[in-house]
Specification:
The longest helix has 16 residues. The chain contains 8 helices and 12 strands. Helix 2 packs antiparallel against helix 5 and helix 3 packs antiparallel against helix 4. It folds into 3 domains: 98 residues, Roll (Thiol Ester Dehydrase, Chain A); 35 residues; 140 residues, Thiol Ester Dehydrase, Chain A. By secondary structure, it is an alpha+beta fold. A hairpin with a 4-residue loop joins strand 11 and strand 12. It is globular and about 80 Å long. GO terms for molecular function: fatty acyl-CoA hydrolase activity.
Length: 375
Amino acid sequence: MSLLGRAKALLPSGKNIQALAPSPDVSATTSTLPAVDSEPASLTPQRRGNGRADLIEYPVELEKVGDDLYRSCRLFKPSVGPGTYGGQVLAQAAWAATQTVPPELSMHSLHSYFLHPSDPNVPLVYRVERIRDGRSYATRLTTANQKNKVVFTITCSFSRPEPIQTLDYAPPMPIPELKPDNCISAEDKLQNFFDKIGKKLPKEQREQLRNGIRERKRMPVEVRNAQANDADMLMADGENNQAFWLRPRGRVRNDLAFAKIVLLYMSDLGISFTVSKALGLDKMSDPPLGTMVSLDHSVHFYFDDWDPSGWTFFHLTCPVAGDGRGIAEGQMWTEDGKLLAIVTQEAVCRADNRAELRAQKQKEASDAQSPSAKL
């Protein structure tokens, strides 16, 4: 297919395509509840001179509104996708749970389910339930509530350090095709694509593409493709894997608990599209990609000593897909090869077979009217 055809096919339709990442300037909502005097200091990021928090802290910020009850200060909807960016909901819900455990406990795993798309124009209310407080482990169940229904659930487990357990194991890090300094950024890749075919597109589609470029520039996370190919993360390129370098824009506070929230926020970036790539589906394929939404998301954290402001290598594969869904597995590594987290997500991934179904119905109707069918 020509570049022009590919561009038209990949432009967002606004329906059923999961978002890549949010922008701090898109569809923000601000809580109107009065400040709570007992709000923990850790919930309020340090402000810059312009009154805004550092980019990666800005989308995670919460307001305490009751006992074990928190509310989002703002939500972001990317230019594609049915609702709020899933990584933001994950991060906020886990951050709410983190506020309810002693600081010596560290989150080591979580399991979550996306139940309904959330409206970025209505704050989410996170209710934390203290399931268990043991000597070594603690468990928290957090529900995200909006419009009188639960839209998301997450169970987080926290553990105390075990310094006398000195044995450890991890496989070697997959060798990236490109180092961060040799990678093109997500926004530059989209800009190059626009420069090649933008003038040939209708005005409305040109503006959609420009919005996508601006949005990627404003993301709180910098994304670079670690693979030596020209395919965008939305494009099916016949592979069942992806690889990115990710780095927060701006500083990250010196806080291990929040560093894990940063990893969690980044862990939802483009992960489900590993499934659509494996199936050969995108907006230009035949049949094209129809529905792509996340069902669940799990993360296991290891090796707590790292710099969250540095580059993270995110290597993704799809081990299986079928029956309208598929699994993406990811490993998050430091640049020097330390395995930080294992990520698993199952997503609905459906081809848009409406044209095929219409043709089948037309054939059946035609066959029913044929002379032989009346005999």
